[in-house]
Design a protein that fits this description.
The protein is mainly β. Helix content is 10%, strand content 36%. The strands form three sheets. The protein has a seven-stranded antiparallel beta sheet. A four-stranded antiparallel beta sheet has the order 1-13-12-2, with no helix packed on it. The chain has a two-stranded antiparallel sheet with strand order 8-9. The N terminus is likely disordered. Bound molecules: flavin mononucleotide. The site of flavin mononucleotide has 17 residues, from β4 and β6.
Length: 208
């Protein structure tokens, strides 16, 4: 078994080893930005799904992920944030990440319009925060400890890692919008245990 269900452990001290080194990037090859390459079979169409929505959900749920809270601050100063496990890496050079947002999300307008956001990778002791930022009625920011990133996006205290992103491009696909962020700054807590999500439950890591 690779994971054990979440258990609350004493948070580890938040230690950074010296000042963050700037992310230096080799001179990039001229990769096109936000180019969309059509599928070679663009003239064809996918067959209709041979499975039910619950079967699709159950199969997707076998993919264990980390958990993030994506945050932003609107020009009016309103704080926005939601729990998302669709986060993934895209490219090292340039440094790109992605995540996807349901078209029905109330935060969609803010993320579409904003120039920056932050992806906060949650630590194992932040399950309550993950639940709060996934609940519609919840007062998400009351009592939430954060600092302000260079772009103004909230950086959550105690996160295992933080990626401060320029809102580089987005892709409308199905009922979600994929956001690709260009990472301007990142940091992590060495040794922090990440919060994991699998099959509708939260876990903490258990090395094999
Ligand atoms: C573990 C977990 C992961 C989630 N991942 C996503 C995600 O990647 N994208 C998304 O749109 N919603 C995701 N959600 C649901 C949103 O957090 C939830 O719908 C939230 O209320 C959306 O906030 P908003 O309507 O204020 O934008 C996730 C929820 C949980 C519990």
């Amino acid at each position: 078994m690779g994971f054990i269900p979440i258990s609350f452990k004493k948070p580890r001290p938040c230690g950074r080893r010296g000042p963050a080194r700037p992310f230096t990037i080799r001179e990039s090859p001229p990769y096109p930005s936000a180019a969309v390459t059509p599928s070679p079979s663009a003239a064809l169409q996918a067959r209709a799904p041979s499975f039910s929505l619950p079967q699709f959900r159950a199969s997707l749920a076998m993919f264990a992920t980390g958990v993030t809270i994506v945050t932003a601050r609107t020009p009016e100063g309103v704080l926005v944030g939601l729990t998302a496990n669709s986060f993934n890496s895209v490219s090292l050079d340039p440094p790109l990440v992605l995540w996807s947002l349901a078209r029905t999300a109330t935060s969609m307008a803010a993320f579409r319009a904003g120039s920056h956001y932050a992806v906060n990778v949650l630590a194992a002791d932040q399950m309550a925060l993950a639940e709060r930022f996934a609940s519609r009625g919840a007062e998400r920011w009351a009592g939430t400890d954060f600092t302000e990133g260079a772009s103004g996006a909230p950086l959550l205290a105690g996160a295992a890692a933080v990626f401060e992103c320029f809102n580089r491009s987005r892709y409308e696909e199905g009922d979600h919008t994929i956001f690709v962020g260009e990472v301007e700054a990142c940091s992590h807590r060495p040794g922090a245990s990440p919060l994991l999500f699998h099959g509708g439950r939260f876990y903490t890591e258990h090395p094999l």
